[in-house]
Amino acid sequence: MTDESATTTTTQTKEAAIDELLRYRDAVANGEATFADVAKKVSDCSSAKRGGDLGEFGPGQMQRAFEDATYALKIGEMSEAVETDSGVHVILRTG
Protein backbone atom coordinates (compact mmCIF):
# COMPACT_ATOMS: atom_id res chain seq x y z
CA MET A 1 0.00 0.00 0.00
CA THR A 2 1.34 3.44 -0.88
CA ASP A 3 0.05 6.49 0.92
CA GLU A 4 0.94 10.13 0.99
CA SER A 5 0.46 12.57 3.83
CA ALA A 6 0.69 16.32 4.27
CA THR A 7 0.83 18.14 7.58
CA THR A 8 1.17 21.78 8.47
CA THR A 9 4.42 23.09 9.91
CA THR A 10 3.39 26.33 11.62
CA THR A 11 2.78 26.62 15.36
CA GLN A 12 -0.91 27.29 15.83
CA THR A 13 -4.01 25.91 17.48
CA LYS A 14 -5.20 22.50 16.40
CA GLU A 15 -8.37 24.05 14.97
CA ALA A 16 -6.37 26.54 12.90
CA ALA A 17 -4.07 23.76 11.69
CA ILE A 18 -7.06 21.67 10.60
CA ASP A 19 -8.62 24.66 8.80
CA GLU A 20 -5.34 25.34 6.99
CA LEU A 21 -4.89 21.69 6.10
CA LEU A 22 -8.42 21.46 4.71
CA ARG A 23 -7.80 24.54 2.55
CA TYR A 24 -4.78 22.74 1.07
CA ARG A 25 -6.89 19.61 0.62
CA ASP A 26 -9.56 21.62 -1.22
CA ALA A 27 -6.90 23.15 -3.50
CA VAL A 28 -5.72 19.66 -4.43
CA ALA A 29 -9.27 18.37 -4.88
CA ASN A 30 -10.10 21.35 -7.13
CA GLY A 31 -6.99 20.87 -9.25
CA GLU A 32 -5.43 24.15 -8.10
CA ALA A 33 -2.39 22.31 -6.70
CA THR A 34 -0.95 18.83 -6.68
CA PHE A 35 -0.74 16.74 -3.55
CA ALA A 36 3.02 16.37 -4.05
CA ASP A 37 3.58 20.12 -4.36
CA VAL A 38 1.55 20.84 -1.24
CA ALA A 39 3.35 18.11 0.71
CA LYS A 40 6.74 19.46 -0.35
CA LYS A 41 5.70 22.95 0.73
CA VAL A 42 3.95 22.35 4.06
CA SER A 43 4.66 18.85 5.37
CA ASP A 44 6.94 18.40 8.35
CA CYS A 45 7.11 14.65 7.68
CA SER A 46 10.34 13.19 6.31
CA SER A 47 8.26 12.16 3.27
CA ALA A 48 7.91 15.83 2.23
CA LYS A 49 10.95 15.64 -0.05
CA ARG A 50 9.20 12.76 -1.87
CA GLY A 51 5.98 14.73 -2.29
CA GLY A 52 4.43 13.07 0.75
CA ASP A 53 4.99 9.52 -0.51
CA LEU A 54 5.35 7.18 2.45
CA GLY A 55 5.93 4.11 0.30
CA GLU A 56 4.28 0.80 0.99
CA PHE A 57 3.34 -0.18 4.52
CA GLY A 58 1.29 -2.90 6.10
CA PRO A 59 -0.86 -3.40 9.16
CA GLY A 60 0.73 -2.30 12.42
CA GLN A 61 3.38 -0.07 10.83
CA MET A 62 1.59 3.27 11.26
CA GLN A 63 -0.37 4.87 14.08
CA ARG A 64 -3.82 3.30 14.37
CA ALA A 65 -5.87 6.37 13.34
CA PHE A 66 -3.65 6.92 10.29
CA GLU A 67 -3.80 3.27 9.33
CA ASP A 68 -7.57 3.04 9.79
CA ALA A 69 -8.11 6.13 7.63
CA THR A 70 -5.78 4.77 4.95
CA TYR A 71 -7.48 1.40 4.70
CA ALA A 72 -10.91 3.09 4.53
CA LEU A 73 -9.88 4.91 1.33
CA LYS A 74 -10.10 3.54 -2.17
CA ILE A 75 -7.10 4.02 -4.45
CA GLY A 76 -7.10 7.61 -5.65
CA GLU A 77 -9.23 8.89 -2.75
CA MET A 78 -8.09 11.62 -0.38
CA SER A 79 -9.04 11.72 3.30
CA GLU A 80 -10.45 14.52 5.34
CA ALA A 81 -8.30 15.68 8.28
CA VAL A 82 -6.95 12.70 10.26
CA GLU A 83 -5.66 13.35 13.77
CA THR A 84 -2.87 11.22 15.26
CA ASP A 85 -0.36 11.64 18.08
CA SER A 86 1.99 13.07 15.42
CA GLY A 87 -0.37 15.79 14.21
CA VAL A 88 -3.05 16.31 11.61
CA HIS A 89 -2.81 14.73 8.18
CA VAL A 90 -4.51 14.44 4.82
CA ILE A 91 -3.91 11.08 3.18
CA LEU A 92 -3.98 10.33 -0.53
CA ARG A 93 -4.12 6.61 -1.15
CA THR A 94 -2.15 5.77 -4.26
CA GLY A 95 -1.90 2.00 -4.03
TrEMBL record:
Q: Which GO terms describe its cellular component?
A: cytosol; nucleus
GO MF, one example: peptidyl-prolyl cis-trans isomerase activity
**What are the record keywords, sorted?**
Isomerase, Rotamase
Q: Which domain of life is it from?
A: Eukaryota
- Reactions the enzyme catalyzes: [protein]-peptidylproline (omega=180) = [protein]-peptidylproline (omega=0)
Which positions fall inside the PpiC domain? 1-95
Family under the similarity heading: Belongs to the PpiC/parvulin rotamase family.
Q: What is this protein called?
A: Peptidyl-prolyl cis-trans isomerase
